[in-house]
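Budget justification, computational time. The allocation requested in the original proposal was used primarily to generate structure tokens for proteins on the priority list. As evidence of use, we reproduce two of the resulting records. The first is shown immediately below.
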Amino acid sequence: MRRLLLLLLFLANTVSAATNGLYYTTYLETSGAYPTRSTTAYPASSSGVTSQPYVAFNSGNPLGASRNTMVMIHFYGYLYIAGTGTQAITFYDQSDDGFSLQLNGTYIINNWAEQGCSCSNLSWNGSANGSGTVTINKGQYYAVDVWWYQNQGGYGADLYWNLGSGVVAVPASVFFENNGPTITGYGSSTIITTT
């Protein structure tokens, strides 16, 4: 009985240790249009933790990068929706330029393109550059792998979802730095594998 109580206490402490946010690294890419999504192809400029995969529209240097052109940002961590059962989600991005979203190594959005957007700084305006639908299990962590790049001109990135009751910005409360499955494969690939 004591071992069971200790195990339950350990599991409760492990779950409570989850920290909201996503890790990010900014890269100074050198290829212009359609850069390689890689953590080793370009020099890193800054890194840290942010609340969600978001780049304010035409607002300074994105997430501490040393410039605002030819920049790429890699966001990674976990997505978690409390509860039980399944949840269908349609994700939408507004991005200038390219944007991709993977959950557990599967592309949900692969919108890696030179494009403008009517980026609306996390206030849905009915316009999307890319979208994708997935069904997840509530109460399970999903590895999140997001890439965004800016070549020239205007820039920004917003991520929205629809859980069946309208399109809204994906809330920061569902992103976590830790407590999901072990992430491997960040060395030179965009694919996340989980163990």
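The second record produced under the same allocation is shown here.
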Amino acid sequence: LCDIAPDQRATIEKVLADHGVVTVTQISNARRFAFACPALPTCGLAVTESERALPGVIDEVEAELSQLGLADEQFTIRMTGCPNGCARPYSADVGLVGRSVDGKSGEGRYTVFLGGNLLGTRMAQVYKDQVPRSEIVATLRPVLLHFRKHRQPQETFGDFCDRIGLETLSKMEHQA
């Protein structure tokens, strides 16, 4: 909504609240800057879930960030159901790209990209491939821990990942 007269703002906010619409100040930064493509079942190219899976991923990310004291960080999480990248995961701080589905469990597997940025002006790089949906947050946890401990003042998550590089990121997995 735009061009709202200041004297109408409270009325409009009440109508939105009465209908369960939350404002930007009521959601986490992880959810605010997240984006997904429609994927299954509407896209014929999708091999995994995206739009329907991302809210659950964000729930888990929010809990992890809160536990680590990083809930106020601003970063993008973008998820797609195939490598076409319609939600722009390749330039996000955290990009999740659907790659395959486990034949036994039916669980989606994703390539995790790290190191883009909030503005989408830097390309992320492959951190891990074929990560099951249920292990996405566990895969991110070691990097988030090291980000919390070793970031530079005012450094964002994507900037941290880009600065330290993939080789160091991969080593962090075994140090957590």
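A brief technical remark on that second record: The mean pLDDT is 94.
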